[in-house]
C-alpha cells in the first residue's frame, strides 16, 4: 500500500537530538514515512524528482538558512506543501513567509502535533493493510519506482549526516550588547577546547573590531580577507600543541561586507578541517550573527552584571524569533559572577522565563592583566576562577568533554533556590530568588 510521505529538513545536531525540534524521545530514523535531510542540496535534488512526499517541514539545514531553503523547495514544486519551523509566530516572520510563498510557519508545538498525527495515521494505515499468508521475495516491479530511493534516504540520511565532511562543532560566543566579555570567553574557550584534545580554531568573526589576536599574543596571524583572497593559505591554519589555530578578523573594515557574502562557504571549509570552531562575534547584530547561529552546534549567549545587558539579551532573542533562528541550541551564561555580584544564574533564568543559565566566575584583575599582555596560556595555567567555571561548562558540551549534563555553579541547590545563609545579604538574595512566574 502506498502512503504519502513527509520530508524533514534539519541540521545535523537537531536530527541527532530531536528534542531541539520539540520531538523529545522520538527516533526519527526509524519512521518509515519520514525522509530526513541535513543538506539543503541533497534535499532539493531528491524532492525535485520525488512523487511520494506531499509535505516538507523545514527546521534548518547544515548549509542554508531555513527560510531560503523552504522558499526554494516551494519554487521547485509549487504543488507540494512546504512548512517552516519558527519558534515564535511573529508578524514579521509571517510577512516573510507569505512573501516567499511558503505555505505555513509552524511553532514547535504545532510541529509536534502534526508529527504525532502523521505518525498515528501511518501506523493505522499499515495496521489496516491485509497481510499475505506467505511473504514471497518482492519483485522489483511490484514496488513504486521511487520507493527504493526514498527508503535509502531514510536510512542513509542520518548516517550520512554523521559522516559528512563538515563535521566540526561550531560554538559562537554572542551577547546582546558590547562589554559582556565575548572576546575573553571566546579566547579561553578555544584554549580549553584544545586542551580537551580537539583540533580547535579560534575564529575572530567580530568583523569590525576583533581583538582576539591581541589577547592571544599572536603577531600577524592570517586574516579572513587574506584567506578569501588566497584560498590555498588555508593550509596555514593549524593548531599546534596547546595552541589553537587562529583566523583573525579582516584587516580592513571596508572588506566586512564582502566577507559576509562569502562566509557560508568559508565556514563549511573551516568546519571540515577542525573538530571545534569557537567564533568570537561583535556587539552590533548583523547578517554575520545569523550565519553563525544558523550553523552552530551550540551558541554561548553571555549576559554580564548590567541590567542593560540582560535587556539587550531579551531584545536579541526576540530578533532571533522574528528571523526564524532556532534558539534551542543556545547556552546562556551570566558572566563575572562573584559573592557581591548583582545577578546570579537564578536571576537571569527568571528573566529568561526559566531558561537554564550557567555562571561564569569573575576572574578578577588577573584576566585583564594576562590577556592584555598577550599571555593567555599563563591565565589557563593559573587555574583562574573564570577558566575553571568555563571549563566545567564546556566539558558537558564539547567533543572530548565528559559529556555529562552540566549544572549551574552551585548545582541543584541553586536551581531550587536553597542557599546557605551567609549573613544579611545572602538572606536577602534568598528572598529574591523565590520561584518566579514563568
Descriptive notes:
43% of the residues lie in helices and 14% in strands. It contains 18 helices and twelve strands. The strands form two sheets. A seven-stranded parallel sheet has the order 8-7-9-6-10-11-12, sandwiched between helices. Strand 1 (5-9), helix 1 and strand 2 form a beta-alpha-beta unit. It is globular and about 65 Å long.
Kindly summarize this structure in a few lines.
The protein is an alpha/beta fold and 438 residues long. It is built from 18 helices and twelve strands. It folds into two domains: 5-126, Response regulator (Rossmann fold), CATH 3.40.50; 169-396, 3-Layer(aba) Sandwich (Rossmann fold), CATH 3.40.50.300.
Q: Report the C-alpha radius of gyration, rounded.
A: 24 Å
Poorly predicted runs are 126-166, 403-435
- Overall pLDDT confidence: 81
Give the N-terminus to C-terminus distance in angstroms: 47 Å
Task: Give the strand order of the largest sheet, numbering strands 1, 2, ... along the chain.
Answer: 8-7-9-6-10-11-12
- Counting DSSP E segments of at least 2 residues, the number of strands comes to 12
Helix-strand category = alpha/beta
CATH level-3 fold name of the largest domain: Rossmann fold
CATH superfamily of the largest domain: P-loop containing nucleotide triphosphate hydrolases
Strand content: 5-15%
Number of helices: 18
Helix content: 40-55%
Oligomer: single chain
Instruction: Report the major sheet.
Output: 7 strands, parallel
GO biological process, one term: negative regulation of cell division
Biased composition (Basic residues): 422-431
Organism: Eggerthella sinensis
Protein name: Chromosome partitioning protein ParA
Amino acid at each position: 500500500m502506498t502512503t504519502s510521505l513527509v520530508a524533514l529538513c534539519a541540521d545535523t545536531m537537531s536530527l541527532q537530538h530531536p528534542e531541539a525540534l520539540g520531538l523529545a524521545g522520538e527516533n526519527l530514523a526509524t519512521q518509515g514515512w519520514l525522509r530526513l535531510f541535513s543538506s539543503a542540496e541533497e534535499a532539493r535534488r531528491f524532492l525535485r524528482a520525488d512523487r511520494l512526499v506531499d509535505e516538507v517541514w523545514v527546521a534548518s539545514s547544515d548549509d542554508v538558512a531555513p527560510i531560503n531553503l523552504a522558499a526554494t523547495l516551494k519554487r521547485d514544486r509549487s504543488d507540494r506543501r512546504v512548512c517552516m519551523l519558527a519558534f515564535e509566530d511573529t508578524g514579521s516572520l509571517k510577512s516573510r513567509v507569505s512573501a516567499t510563498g511558503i505555505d505555513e510557519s509552524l511553532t514547535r508545538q504545532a510541529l509536534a502535533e502534526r508529527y504525532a498525527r502523521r505518525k498515528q495515521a501511518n501506523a493505522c494505515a499499515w495496521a489496516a493493510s491485509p497481510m499475505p499468508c506467505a511473504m514471497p521475495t518482492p519483485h522489483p516491479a511490484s514496488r513504486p519506482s521511487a520507493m527504493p530511493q526514498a527508503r535509502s534516504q531514510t536510512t542513509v540520511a542520518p548516517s550520512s549526516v554523521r559522516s559528512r565532511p563538515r563535521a566540526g562543532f561550531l560554538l559562537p560566543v554572542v551577547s546582546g550588547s558590547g562589554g559582556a566579555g565575548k572576546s575573553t570567553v571566546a579566547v579561553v574557550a578555544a584554549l580549553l577546547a584544545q586542551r580537551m584534545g580537539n583540533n580547535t580554531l579560534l575564529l575572530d568573526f567580530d568583523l569590525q573590531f576583533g581583538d582576539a589576536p591581541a589577547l592571544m599574543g599572536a603577531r600577524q596571524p592570517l586574516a579572513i580577507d587574506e584567506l578569501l583572497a588566497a584560498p590555498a593559505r588555508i593550509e596555514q591554519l593549524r593548531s599546534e600543541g596547546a595552541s589553537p589555530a587562529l583566523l583573525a578578523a579582516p584587516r580592513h573594515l571596508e572588506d566586512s561586507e564582502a566577507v559576509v557574502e562569502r562566509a557560508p562557504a568559508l565556514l563549511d571549509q573551516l568546519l571540515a578541517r577542525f573538530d571545534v570552531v569557537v567564533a568570537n562575534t561583535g556587539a552590533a547584530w548583523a547578517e554575520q550573527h545569523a550565519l553563525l547561529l544558523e550553523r552552530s552546534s551550540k551558541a554561548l549567549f553571555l549576559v554580564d552584571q548590567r541590567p542593560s545587558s540582560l535587556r539587550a539579551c531579551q531584545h536579541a532573542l526576540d530578533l532571533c524569533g522574528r528571523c526564524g533562528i532556532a534558539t534551542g541550541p543556545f547556552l546562556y551564561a551570566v558572566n563575572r559572577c562573584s559573592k557581591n555580584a548583582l545577578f546570579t544564574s537564578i536571576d537571569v533564568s527568571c528573566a529568561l522565563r526559566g531558561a537554564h543559565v550557567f555562571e561564569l566566575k569573575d576572574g578578577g584583575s588577573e584576566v585583564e592583566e594576562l590577556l592584555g599582555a598577550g599571555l593567555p596560556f599563563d591565565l589557563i595555567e593559573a587555574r583562574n576562577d573564570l577558566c575553571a567555571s568555563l571549563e566545567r561548562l564546556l566539558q558537558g558540551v564539547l567533543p572530548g568533554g565528559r559529556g555529562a549534563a552540566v549544572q549551574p555553579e552551585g548545582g541543584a541547590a541553586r536551581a531550587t533556590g536553597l542557599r546557605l545563609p551567609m549573613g544579611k545579604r545572602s538572606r536577602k538574595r534568598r528572598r529574591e530568588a523565590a520561584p518566579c512566574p514563568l
